Amino acid sequence: MVDLWQGGVRLHCREYGGSGRPVLLLHGLAGHSGEWRRTAEALAGEYRVLALDLRGHGQSTRRPADVSRAAYVADVATVIRELGGGPVALVGQSFGAHTAMLTAAAHPDLVDRLVLVEGGVGGAGGASVEAVEGWLRSWPAPFATRADAERFFGGPPSAGAWVDGLEERADGLWPRFDVDILVDALRPVAAAEHWPDWERLTCPTLLVLGERGIIGAAEIAEMIARRPETRQVTIPAAGHDLHLERPDEWARVLARYLGTGTA
């Protein structure tokens, strides 16, 4: 575990080990760095695997003053420069995928391969933010027991990772985030489509989608049309949290792409 500082914000990173090329993993909204454990285990033999608690999440600063897209990009750039040891393979899921895309566009010298898991260019609109906020506020926190939390999150296979992100206190298990901060962070993602950033990318890019995911077919088609060299893989029977729902299939896809550049 390593703590870095960026603009007065503590950034908590997990180092999963390995001594090869660096891979940095970015979780989605309301997630945490620990959800990448199985991914890291699959890669650690050949790669140096790092995972970041994004600002406002996990053990990073809970209530940062700045939750702009630029702030998240600056955080990731800081981690790469201080821990990555050179250009990294940058992997992000959902909100983390959008952050990864913007980072690679702004800092092409820091990213040599990009993997977007259930991530697009943004611009879903205010209704999408309201839906996410409603879901986050529906969490019956504190959860009295781990079993209660697992039932709420739908049971195996992905519930365990969500529950692992909770903080144990005397009165139960609590989220390690504040809803208002996460909603403020999500608004700029939903407010605009970031096509110029997508087209500015220079590194090889892989889109990994769930068969039951939330990225629309029209958006995916446009992404491919604007950058035809982009590779795409769809994981059967998987939803938005495909790295948790189908961890073995996901890990095989990622390892193959990092190793060979083929999807």
UniProtKB/TrEMBL annotation:
Kindly give the InterPro entries that the UniProt entry links to this protein: AB_hydrolase_1 (IPR000073), AB_hydrolase_fold (IPR029058), Carboxylesterase_BioH (IPR050228)
**Annotated AB hydrolase-1 domain residues:** 22-247
Molecular functions (GO terms): catalytic activity
Q: Which Pfam families match?
A: Abhydrolase_1
Entry protein name: AB hydrolase-1 domain-containing protein
The upper taxonomy is:
Bacteria, Bacillati, Actinomycetota, Actinomycetes, Micromonosporales
